[in-house]
Write a structure and sequence with these properties.
Layout: E1 13-14, H1 23-26, H2 48-51, H3 60-68, E2 71-75, E3 80-82, E4 90-96, E5 99-104, E6 110-116, E7 121-122, H4 124-127, E8 137-140, E9 144-150, H5 151-160, H6 162-186, H7 191-201, E10 213-216, H8 221-227, H9 232-244, E11 248-251, E12 254-257, H10 260-266
Helix pairs in contact: 5-6, 7-10, 8-9
């Protein structure tokens, strides 16, 4: 994919209006704001920022400081949020819509790595390092709103707060564990096993039901096929096979697991 022909959101940053009453957000990018007292995060119930595990243990003033220096990115479908190899100066929270994460192979084709939807954080690990680089391209799949935060400010907070540093380390460890699980799925030798393992990985850990479990495919099927290292027609064939065996039902991107134990037995 060309680095020059794809539009980016860098010049489309706007103020977030009528979405939150948080003064820190309202003052984002207002460089000469004079305040008598430090801003404090109001911890609004609907706000995805303070509720996210990555920001756990941050105080109200730290959260407000991050938000005051944040930016809102409004992307149309197909716009780039960031590019692989660029300095990770900012990290992101997806507010609405979805983002595709991918790399470009030496042959120039896309290799889909995954996606991110509402309330998900992107590039937080890379932004924690002063030399961090974005590990993938991030491109919107649909009209998407993303808020970005200063990596430099985050590093200052991590360096000055041992309790927050421990929280970041726990978060990074969990992220690495998820990456290992994703790579384990890709090591499966055949497409059927990769797809079944992937479907089972979408089930919330607390859900122990054997039947009637509904999962949502986070990517369109063509992109999901790329992520699972198979051709789109192979994905369609395996889904049909599982459906004909009475193991799943498929409705667009919604998959109902009719026999969870049967799926596990099916791939051994």
């Amino acid at each position: 994919m060309s680095r020059h022909n794809t539009p980016t959101a860098n010049n489309r940053q706007t103020e977030e209006a009528a979405v939150t009453s948080c003064d820190a957000i309202k003052l984002a990018d207002v460089t000469h704001a004079k305040l008598a007292d430090p801003l404090l995060c109001p911890r609004l119930e609907h706000c995805a920022i303070h509720r996210h595990p990555f920001f756990q243990d941050l105080g109200d003033q730290d959260l407000a400081s991050l938000c005051q220096r944040s930016r809102l990115h409004t992307l149309e479908a197909g716009e780039m949020l960031c590019r692989e190899g660029d300095r990770a100066e900012r990290f992101f929270i997806v507010l609405s819509g979805s983002v595709k994460l991918f790399r470009v192979t030496d042959q120039g084709s896309e290799r889909v790595l995954g996606s991110a939807g509402a309330d998900e954080v992107l590039a937080e690990v890379a932004a924690c390092s002063p030399d961090g680089r974005y590990p993938w391209y991030a491109q919107s799949l649909e009209p998407t709103r993303v808020r970005s935060f200063s990596g430099a400010l985050l590093r200052e907070m991590v360096a000055g707060r041992s309790d927050y540093m421990m929280n970041v380390m726990r978060y990074v460890a969990a992220a690495m564990s998820q990456t290992v699980e994703e790579r384990t799925i890709l090591t499966a030798q055949n497409a059927r096993e990769r797809l079944v393992q992937y479907l089972l990985s979408l089930v919330p850990g607390a859900d122990r039901r054997n039947t009637g479990v509904v999962v949502e495919l986070p990517l369109p099927k063509g992109l999901l096929a790329s992520q699972l290292a198979m051709q789109p027609e192979t994905l369609s064939r395996v889904l049909k096979e599982l459906r004909n065996r009475g193991l799943i039902q498929v409705a667009q991107r919604q998959v109902t697991l009719l026999d969870r134990a049967g799926l596990q037995e099916f791939v051994g």
